[in-house]
Amino acid sequence: MPRLILSSLAALLLASGITSAAPTKTIKVGQSPESVCRGWGGKLYVTMINGDQPGDGEVVEVDGESVKPFAKGLSDPKGIVFVGNLLITSDGTMMWKIAQDGTATKLVEAKDFPAPIEFLNDVAVAEDGKSVYVTEMSSPGPMFDPSGERKLWDLDSEQAKSLPAKGCVYQVSLDGKVKQVVPPGNVALRFPNGVTVGQGASDKQLYVGDFFTGQVHVHKDGKLQSVVSGVRGVDGLAVTPDAIYISSWNQGKVWKFDRKTQQLKVVHEGLTTAADFFYDEAHQQLIVPDMLAGTLVFLPVK
Asked: Using H for helix, E for strand and C for coil, what is the string for 21-88?
């Protein structure tokens, strides 16, 4: 492409607020990767939903370009984190803890929660380093408009107004104790997905994104306060002192919210389904699973 056209295109992207970062690499990891984190020896661990059969889900280990099975026998694994020398992942109505040898044992199951569980999703390490937050998204089906692929009902539609508000957030200790942190019933958080704890000594607070409305909230003094809006399909979420990074599963985009200027912009688009990424601070990148493409995409951030 001629340099003049490239320069004009770059100017257009900047004017529109889109500064699409080119991936440093893309790795094929298998069928339906959902979430990723770093674990033992800095290796990456990825939850793989795989097919629809119970027990066909797994966690794979990514070491450089090498991808190999690590923990098998899961069903529908979603969020994953590394804490207390264990991998913790959600799986439908239960959670697993996975040891360094790949052995998976139940951490909690539906009966351990104080209310019925439908769809445990994203997981984040809590401030104490001895427990995790997990979002109970509730059944996601009702929020999708069947007239389009991965299409959500319009926010002002009658269907949107009739959606339930069952979503909530739990805190689960590494020894299996459960408590509810954000209760259900709040229309601002009907379908919570992405969850994280703010980084930096002054911001150890819980942040959670609502998939349907596209709002990100901070949980402060027992209340939810909206800090970002306009990113429907919130999946991955990371909060740094300077920025909030958000992936949109159904839009296939990654966004950056500048906490100083309060500006929201797309930093990468063109993914099929941008799932629950890992904010890799040491390497200044986001590692984003593209679920339907079956890949990990490495995006530089500054």
From this structure: CCCCEEEECCCCEEEEEECHHHCEEEEECCCCCCCCEEEEEEECCEEEEEEEEECCEEEEEEECCEEE
Nearest residue to 192 (alpha-carbon basis) of 123, 243, 145, 116: 123
Paired with 172 in beta bridges are 132, 178
From residue 41, give the alpha-carbon distance in Å to each of 22, 45, 65, 267. Answer: 27, 11, 15, 29
d(CA 69, CA 121): 22
Q: Could you give the domains of the chain?
A: 3-300 (2.120.10.30)
Query: Closest Cα to residue 231, out of 220, 245, 215?
Result: 215
Inter-residue contact 95 to 74 (CB < 8 Å): no
Phi, psi of 248 (to 5 degrees): -110, 115
- Per-residue pLDDT of 134-163, as tens digits, reads 999 999 999 999 999 999 999 999 999 999
pLDDT in the model for residue 52: 82
| Residue 135: half-sphere exposure toward Cβ, Cα within 13 Å | 32
Report, as an integer, the average pLDDT of 168-184.
97
Beta strand 66-74 pairing with 243-248? unpaired
Distance in angstroms (rounded) separating the CA atoms of residues 62 and 64? 6
Which residues, in sequence order, are bridge partners of residue 254? 247, 268
Locate 285 and state its tokens.
């990148």
Q: Is residue 96 within 8 Å of 107, Cβ to Cβ?
A: yes
Contact 73, 106 (CB under 8 A): no
